[in-house]
Amino acid sequence: MAKGKNIESRNVQITDEVCRPLYGRTSKSWFLGFSFGIVGILFGVYGIYCTLFKGIGTWGLDRTIGWGWAITNFVWWIGIGHAGTFISAILLLFRQKWRTGINRAAETMTIFAIICASIFPIIHMGRIAFAFYTIPYPNTRNLWVNFNSPLLWDVFAILTYFIVSLIFWYIGMIPDLAVLREGKARKFKRKIYSLLSLGWQGTIFDWKRYDKIMILLASIATPLVISVHSIVSMDFATSIIPGWHSTIFPPYFVAGAIFSGFAMVQTLMIITRKVLNLERHITVKHINSMNKIILLMGSIVAFAYFIEIFFAFFSGNEFEEFMFLNRATGPYAIWFWIMMFCNIIIPQFLWFKKIRTNIAVTFVFSILINFGMWLERFTIVTTSLHRDFMPSNWTIYKPTFVEVSLFIGSIGLFITLYLVFLRLFPIISFSEIKHQNLENEE
Amino acid sequence: MYELSLLKRMNGKIKNKTLKYQKPSSRRDFIKLLGYGAGVTALLPACEQPIRKMIPYLVQPEDLIPGKAFHYATTFKSGNLICPIVAKLRDGRPIKIEGNELSQVTSGGTNARVQASILDLYNPTRLQKPISGNNVLSWDEVDQQIIAKLEALKDKKIALVTETICSPSEKKIIDILRVKYPNIELLEIDFISNEAIRMANIKCFDLNAIPIYHFEKADFVVGFNADFLSTWISPIEFAKQYSTRKNPDENLLNHVQFESTFTITGAAADKRFPINPSEEKPILVELLSQIKTIKASEIVNLKSDKFNLKKLADNLLKNKGKSLIVSGTNSVEIQILVNAINFELENLGATVDFNNSYCIGKGKAENLNRLINGLNNGNYFGAIFYKFDFGFLSGNSENLFSHIEKLDLSVFIGTNLPEKSKAFKYVLPANHFLESWSDYETKHEYFSLGQPLIKPLFNTRQAEEILKNWAGIETSYHDFMKTRWEEETYTKIQTEKPFNDFWNETLQKGVLEKENREIEVIIEWDENVLKKIQKDEVFKNDKKIEIHLFESSVLGDGNQISNPWILELPDPISKQCWGNAALISPEFAKKHDLINGQHIEILLNKKVVEIPVLVLPGQASNTISVALGFGKSNSELGKTGSNVNYFVQIENGIQKYNFFGDFRKIEKHTELAIGQLHDSMEGRELIKFAKSDEFAQNPELFKHRNHFPENPQFYKKPEFLGYHWGLAVDLNKCTGCSTCVIACQAENNIPVVGKNEVINKHEMHWLRVDRYFNGDLDKPRMLVQPVMCQHCDNAPCENVCPVSATTHSSEGINQMVYNRCIGTRYCANNCPYKVRRFNWYDYNNTDMFKNNEVAVLGMGDDLTRMVLNPDVTQRSRGVIEKCTFCIQRIIDVKNKAKLENRPVFDGEIKMACEQSCPSDALVFGNMNDAESRISKLIKSNRSYRMLEELSTESSVFYQAKIINSNS
Question: Inter-chain contact A126–B823, Cβ cutoff 8 Å?
Fold first, then answer.
């Protein structure tokens, strides 16, 4: 009995700790972050205004380079959005218990990253008003979409991924919402929690169904983790441009996505645990485990780089050969080598436990890896295009202020959404932690 | 059970609410809905595109069928360029110019200036009404005032300054005017002068004539700074003749070119030597002496010198009577040397024909001198600048404006506002040639008639009509011209037709050409003329910097400086548009540490001009070349390019274009608008070429296919049962002159984007001409290739479009559906030829947002929009566009064939690019028809598809370039 009481008091303590940011006064650091986010959004609004009103001509794109920063950002954000579902679905299926401390944050990141990502393919369209043409619906014009086009697959893949991730995230939050419903929040807030918790009672039947649906959703979401970035990679792989046309792209992109996603989770977790005093729940153990995955994925990415370069020369295709030489020695060479450093050298340091468990170094590494992965997407998108088959078309691409604004805007949006989420919902799935603790005790 | 109770409570509320809404709707609700409805109807249309009204005819003219095009023969003339043309008229608007295929001189060829001249008609910068000072006058007032002035000045000298008059009727009017006012002095001045040829021929043969050159009869051509394919004397005619000799299966022409700056003629040559202008004379002297030596001794000593002149002399002698030496340098001595060589080679009477001569280029430098001196000394009391752009006078004419201001009578008659128009008391607007009657004589008895296609758009008058009124002729210019023809030309022609029939037929055809002239001119050569030629210091001036002024192949004499199409057309050689630059060789750039866009000041006779440099491989090492004609500062854009026209000097009574000069580097850098940023082909087989002996040894040279399966695609190979359209491009004939680019732009409503947008690499041309330099940077070979949509049967662009906005037709055409396009640009990325163009901005005022246009020189205005082809949709912002194989032309001909219940004949459909080409390099046709020209061309040994290894199955076939190995 005493043991039970002990657990109960610990549970209360966990709830208190996790829910503290939801009740207290808004902290100064929150406002600081929020104002950063809003300023970022304003940049984005300016970028969108220029793009919509004047045209995509305000970007640095040209007759040869049709995709630049916007698509780079899109692929980068989608990649970041990978870690969440990977953590909650795949690690759930593999019964990796350590995931409980970070899965909510990772899933939240996924949802917001997809929102940020989806801005870019929409605004990079010449005629946004007709974006709905990409949706196959019966119409009087008797027009149908082109199912041969990877861009169309993108539409479905991303929409599906977003919807499934959203459901997964929401259903995982229901037990916590039911607790919040009974908590200290104001009446209005409690009413919303109560509506959202869908009448969760915490009975054994509830939990039984909950476990079943989580496993089911995890099974649905797992192939999506693989499919969404595979399909994004097919935007490039199915084309004929040297540097894009490569069969290794789907697995390579998935590995890269998980790599960058985990790095982003690291960044967020390290900030969150510090600012919200959650060191007890997001521990060095978590960080260590994630670093291991980063190391694994980083090595896969390095292997993919090597294979890609090897086959470019092994193929004897002069255009492929030239493309790699151009990446390594051409006008964008500096960025190529920084990318190589960030994505290949940096993760190899994680073989050492001392580095893996050092929070400051991990934080720096996570930022560098994300930068490196952004550069990887830029390298793929732009350096492949800028010097392709016919030298008469070769050009140099430089982003304009509008494009940079759009990128800042997406980061601002992400920060804002994340901060708002922190104030309204628990960033750690405390019901799962309690569950975990209970299992551990037994 | 907190939750349940809440649900219960909520249900209760919901029920209550439903009850509430079941009440019958009140008047209040009705008014609410009404207000909402009104608001929506008022707001929604506000988002619509601007409404433009179409007004139908109240009474439709009998002979006008809306939507049906009419073609009328007429004539283009600007400066010394005369081209018989056919203008296409749609619903009362001329919209396209094509070459007149009935003319034996040009046989349907045009050039970029001719093609672009249609836009001059709708140019908002045109002179629109007669002005005197700040007052707008009526034409009657103008006539009254000027005739009064002419009467008052009857005993004082008046200058009538004009370009070469080569219209007999115009000449007659001027003669009548001069009979009435003998004090009027006619001063013909050419902006780009070939006077030296006339003067040399006077000295050598006592003939004031520019002879007829026969490039089609020549087996060996040597050119010295003569860009005869794009600017020299009669370029369209020469390009036609030249192209007939570029078929490697027949007797392939040998062509050696010596020139200071790269021209398309030099690019077409089999061998090209960059020379500084001062080297030309010594080379000619040397060549002449070599020829004489070989002729005398018959022993060939093939010791090679810098230019291999002995071998050249030997080759030329082997082609005696079938060779041709031409020089474009305006120097009497050089032209005498050219005559001497042509005489030694027995070309006079064969390839150089004195039986007829050109009527153009009669202007004299002496006239310019007389005008300047006369104005300086106060000899002239009046000046009439007739069809003469004042800004382009050369020589010491800077202070002419102040003199002109002081004159009692100063009149400008022309289409475009002259520079410093304030200096003139009267600025009188003349009609565009498409609003005028005209008869031009290109060579003697080769007439080309012009008829108006549209009423004057503004309050303008035909230039001849203005003079005619002052001369006191009562009839209209048309009647005057017709009468003159009846009295003078008709009587000489042996025809049984009554005059009216003859006249109508000639007008309809547009040309009247007499092939064989009975006159035999006997040429006698006097060796003594050579004695007067000063012996130059041979190859000595290696150290001095030379300035070489040349006529731009795109801009010509500069009359079209405010024509946006011309300005945006990349120069065939430098690929620069929207301005000019000082062209320097890579060696020169290295020596003086200059890069593209670095400004320099060219110094010459105390005159200075600031100009950015452009490094051009193949430029003569010590020579700075600058194109003339740029720099008029009154266009809407401000100054376009740098004006070097004032550098032209008059020396020994002749306009001189080459000098020793100097330059100074200044600390300024501007970005040049260059259409192609990479000059090397990087060893890729995009343009295939070989020497003729290699090709003779291995005819399968170009047939090598990379190894790949027959149908590498996932889907069934498409079959085309009816027509299967294709285009063949002969790279041996193509000179890269870029006429096709403008023809395509005019036909397909391609927008102009402006200088900044070209710098942003956003140009919209559907058809571009790629230019590569191959080999050594100092003496490279230039290779050109027109690239348009290749209409791939396995098109990379088609399968990637998410909305199927680009599809393949059953006739093999890659179609673009603008309405469906959402602008992902994926197709453009995936196109290996990069021929797809995206509308980055609103270039033509078709966007739903107002005031976001990026258009230049009023290209989106209602006036300029009159040039648009109604058969081709204008593309709005955010959609992709590209070459359609002129689908509107295909459909037009197919409809016609269908009405006549027959298939389309081979050659019946002509693409805009194909029609405009002066070299007949492009052939369009049905590839399913084994007898068609294109099917035969595809089977030829030279035929290949670009980037064939990508299995795009393109429908454009290039014929490889063959370089004559004998030269």
Answer: yes
Range of the domain at B915: 726-963
Please list every residue in chain B whose beta carbon sits closer than 8 Å to the beta carbon of residue A127: 821-823, 876-879
Is the CB of B833 less than 8 angstroms away from the CB of A54?
Answer: no
Interface test with A, best of B825, B875, B880, B945 (most A CBs within 10 A): B825
Q: Which residue of B2, B771, B802 is in closest CB contact with A146? A: B802
Query: Which tens digit of pLDDT belongs to each residue from A79-132?
Result: 998 888 888 788 878 877 777 778 888 889 999 999 999 999 999 999 999 999
Residue B596 belongs to a domain: yes
Own/partner long-range contacts of B267-270 (Cβ < 8 Å, ≥24 apart): B267/B572, B267/B573, B267/B735, B267/B736, B267/B781, B267/B782, B267/B783, B267/B784, B268/B229, B268/B242, B268/B735, B269/B223, B269/B967, B270/B963, B270/B964, B270/B965, B270/B966, B270/B967
State whether B771 and A63 contact (CB < 8 Å).
no
Mean pLDDT of B73-77: 93
Alpha carbon distance A433, B893 (integer Å): 77
Nearest chain A Cα to B854, which residue?
A: A54
Does B678 sit within 8 Å of A391, measured CB to CB?
yes
**Interchain CB contact of A143 with B (< 8 Å):** yes
What residue of B is the nearest CA neighbor of A317?
Answer: B949
Q: Do the chains contact at B878 and A239, CB–CB below 8 Å?
A: no
Query: Which of B678, B832, B840 comes nearest A55 by C-beta?
Result: B840
Same domain, B249 and B313: yes
B113 assigned to some structural domain: no
Same domain assignment for residues B350 and B368: no
**CB contacts, 8 Å: A149 with chain B:** 799-802, 826
Position B521 in a domain: no
pLDDT digits (tens, 9 = 90+) for A300-313: 999 999 999 999 89
Burial B59-90 (b: 16+ CB within 10 A, else e): eeeeeeeeeeeeebbbbbbbbbbbbbbbbbbb
CB-nearest to A54 from B4, B684, B852 is: B852
Do B370 and B301 belong together in one domain? no
All domains of chain A in start order, with CATH: 27-441 (1.20.1630.10)
Report whether pLDDT(B72) > 50: yes
Domains of chain B: total: 5
Q: Quick check: B834 and A64 CB within 8 A?
A: yes
- Shared domain check, B223 and B177: no
Check: complex ipTM more than 0.90: yes
Q: Is the pLDDT of residue B624 over 50?
A: yes
Decide if pLDDT at B893 tops 70: yes
- The answer as to whether B903 is a domain residue is yes
Residues of chain B with C-beta less than 8 angstroms from the C-beta of A56: 823, 838, 840, 878
Q: Give the separation between CA B874 and CA B759, rounded to whole angstroms.
A: 23
Same structural domain for residues B872 and B909? Answer: yes
Residues B146 and B37 in one domain: no
CB A243, CB A327: distance < 8 Å = yes
**Shared-domain flag, residues B635 and B768:** no
